[in-house]
Design brief:
alpha/beta, Rossmann fold, Alpha-Beta Plaits, 7-stranded mixed β-sheet, about 25% helix, about 25% strand, binds arabinose-5-phosphate
C-alpha cells in the first residue's frame, strides 16, 4: 500500500453512515472514494451522500456507486475530505495542482469539518515550495499573468504539451506562480489576489483545514487545528 492509500484508509475510519461528504479531487482522494464505494457495496456504510468537487470526481464517485447531490440539496455538509499539494505548520494549504481549486474551495468552505489527507512529502515549513495555481479568466489572460509577476513571482499560463492553455471545469484558465523564497505572507497575498479583477480564485486555502492526516513510512499521524472539533 502506498502512502496516499494509507492516508485514505485512515480517513475512511472516521466516516459514519448517514453522513453527507464533500468529495475532493486528486489521486489521494481517489483512493478515499474507492474505499468509500467498497464499504457501501459491502454494506458496512449506508445512507452516504457525496458532493463532488470536480467533474472527474463526479465520474469516479458515480462509478464507485456513491449517491451524489449538489450543495444546494444538502441540509448540512458533515465533512469534506481532500488532498493538498502543500501543508504548512498552521495547517494552511496550497491546493489546485489537480486543477480543481475553485469548486474544492466552494464546497469545502461549507463543511462542518474539513479533513485533509496527504503523504508526508506534502509537509512544508513555508507555503510556496512549489507553484501556486491561480484560476483566471481567459479574457486578456496575459495581462493578468503580467500582473501576477508584479507580486514577485515567476508566473506562467499553465499550458498542455500542445501549447493550449488548460481549461478548468469552470471554463477558466490557470496560471502557476513560483515564489523564489516561498510565500512570506500568505494572508497578504490572498487579499491581493481576491481584489484583482480577472483572478477568479487561487490555491491558497488558509484557515480552512480542521485536521490533516499525514501518512509516513513510520505510520499515520493527525495534526489538529487548535480549537477545531474532533
Ligand atoms: C486538486 O486540484 C488538488 O487540490 C489536489 O487535492 C491536490 O493537487 C493533491 O493531489 P494529489 O492527492 O493527487 O497529490
Amino acid at each position: 500500500m502506498n502512502l496516499k492509500e494509507l492516508a485514505a484508509e485512515y480517513a475512511i475510519k472516521g466516516i459514519c453512515s448517514g453522513m453527507t461528504l464533500g468529495l475532493g479531487s486528486g489521486s489521494t482522494t481517489s483512493h478515499f472514494i474507492e474505499l468509500l464505494g467498497e464499504r457501501l457495496r459491502l454494506g458496512l456504510l449506508h445512507d452516504i451522500y457525496g458532493v463532488p468537487t470536480s467533474e472527474s470526481t463526479h465520474r469516479l464517485a458515480q462509478a464507485a456507486g456513491i449517491r451524489l447531490i449538489s450543495l444546494a440539496e444538502c441540509e448540512r455538509l458533515d465533512l469534506a475530505v481532500d488532498g493538498a499539494d502543500e501543508v504548512d505548520p498552521n495547517l494552511d494549504l496550497i491546493k489546485g495542482l489537480g486543477m480543481a481549486l475553485l469548486r474544492e474551495k466552494f464546497i469545502e468552505m461549507h463543511a462542518r469539518r474539513f479533513v485533509v489527507i496527504v503523504d508526508e512529502s506534502k509537509l512544508v515549513n513555508r507555503l510556496g515550495r512549489g507553484p501556486l495555481p491561480v484560476e483566471i479568466i481567459p479574457f486578456e489572460a496575459e495581462v493578468t499573468v503580467h500582473w501576477l509577476r508584479s507580486l514577485g513571482c515567476r508566473a506562467e499560463l499553465w499550458r498542455a504539451e500542445d501549447g493550449a492553455p488548460y481549461e478548468t471545469d469552470n471554463a477558466h484558465w490557470l496560471a502557476r506562480c513560483w515564489f523564489p523564497d516561498g510565500i512570506t505572507d500568505a494572508g497578504a497575498l490572498e487579499r491581493l489576489l481576491a481584489d484583482r479583477p480577472g483572478v477568479v480564485d487561487h490555491g491558497l486555502f488558509l484557515g480552512m483545514a480542521s485536521e490533516v492526516i499525514v501518512a509516513a513510512e513510520s505510520g499515520v499521524r493527525t495534526l489538529q487545528r487548535p480549537g477545531s472539533q474532533m
